[in-house]
Design brief:
5-stranded mixed β-sheet, Nucleotidyltransferase, domain 5, 49% helix, 9% strand, alpha/beta, 283 residues
């Protein structure tokens, strides 16, 4: 006897999460579904009172677990708000819910689709770090961006010098080091004599004074000098912010040690031989 085939209309899934909801996260509105019947899908704004209203509606409907997509950074405060109301939150990679053929995407349809997948247990929650790790990661990522911004300023400083045929990068490996700083600040103060500028360099440089003087004899342009000053001030600004960020990370870790009793968890930023960060209050 031939085995009877199961048609798509006959296929069923077991209900895993009975009291579930699905949220399609957006930058301006969030669509929330607790089913496919009329009145079971609502649209909420992104203001704080909107998030409270959403959570209160979900609690009134007996919702215990909620799935939402990790859309940009718009999900973070909603994630925390749902947790504060005592609901289990399943943060899902958007590629797991939307890469399905045959679906016509829309905010309403997406929220209902997320609800369906979550109800039958087909969604896997993404890893969420602890509060301590999240805070520390925020600080360290900001620190990384400060270093990148300072690096871009350094490249622009070198460009301004080269445009005036000041070949400082050829004779000094680090234009923001001790020798480079002294020379650039002298240039910005009005010094144009190559020999006098060369005399400011550290004696440990490989290039001799004569070569330095030749490299520091340029074709001065007011526009390039103005741009050089702007980039130099920006570089100093980023270095002060970097020092403040290091202090904040150190204080954050020390407070964590005191509150948890964990020993030897102290932040000490690595310094290379060419670390030339400017103190917070230096000019």
């Amino acid at each position: 006897m031939a085995k009877q085939k199961t048609t798509p209309a006959q296929m069923e899934f077991s209900l895993v999460n009975e009291h579930a909801a699905g949220i399609d996260v957006g930058s301006r509105t969030h669509w929330v579904s607790i089913g496919t019947l009329e009145g079971q899908t609502r649209e909420y704004g992104v203001f704080t009172d909107d998030l409270h209203a959403m959570c209160q509606w979900l609690k009134s409907e007996g919702i215990r677990t909620v799935a939402l997509e990790s859309t940009g950074f718009y999900w973070k405060q909603l994630f925390l708000m749902l947790q504060s109301y005592g609901m289990e939150v399943c943060l899902v990679n958007a590629s797991y819910t939307k890469n399905v053929r045959g679906r016509k995407p829309s905010d309403l349809a997406d929220s209902q689709w997320i609800w369906k997948l979550h109800s039958v247990g087909l969604l896997t929650a993404s890893f969420q770090p602890s509060f301590f790790t999240e805070e520390l990661r925020t600080y360290t990522r900001h620190r990384k961006r400060l270093i990148e911004d300072a690096s871009r300023c350094t490249n622009k400083i070198q460009k301004c010098l080269i445009m005036m045929n000041i070949q400082l990068p050829i004779v000094i490996s680090d234009v923001t080091g001790k020798s480079g700083t002294a020379i650039i600040e002298a240039i910005l103060s009005g010094e144009r004599d190559g020999k006098k500028l060369a005399a400011l360099a550290n004696g440990r440089l490989r290039a001799d004074k004569k070569t330095l003087a030749r490299a520091l004899t340029g074709i001065w342009q007011e526009s390039q000098l103005f741009e050089l000053e702007q980039h130099w001030q920006s570089y100093q600004h980023y270095q002060r912010q970097l020092a403040q960020c290091d202090q904040r990370i150190d204080a954050f870790l020390r407070n964590h040690v005191e509150s948890t009793g964990q020993a030897e968890l102290v932040y000490e930023p690595q310094k290379k031989s060419g670390d030339r960060r400017i103190p917070p209050h230096s000019k």
